[in-house]
Amino acid sequence: MSYPIILASPPSAPPVAVEQREGLTQEWVDSTGVVWPLSDWTTGVTLDDRGVEGLDNPQLTMYRSESRGTPGHRRRGWRAKTREVFWPIFIYSDTSLEWLARQRAFRSTIHPDREGIWRVTANGETRELPVSAVFDAAHTYDIDPMLEGWAQYGIEMEAAQPYWQGKAIRRGPWRAPDAVPFLPPGGGPPVRISSSSAFGSATVPNPGDVEAWGTWTVEGPLSSIALGVGAAIITVPFALNAGQVLVIDTDPQHPSATRDGDDVTALLGLQDYAPVPSGASVPLHVEATGSGWVTFDLVPLYFRAF
Question: 102: part of which helix (H) or strand (E)?
Answer without folding.
Answer: helix 96-107
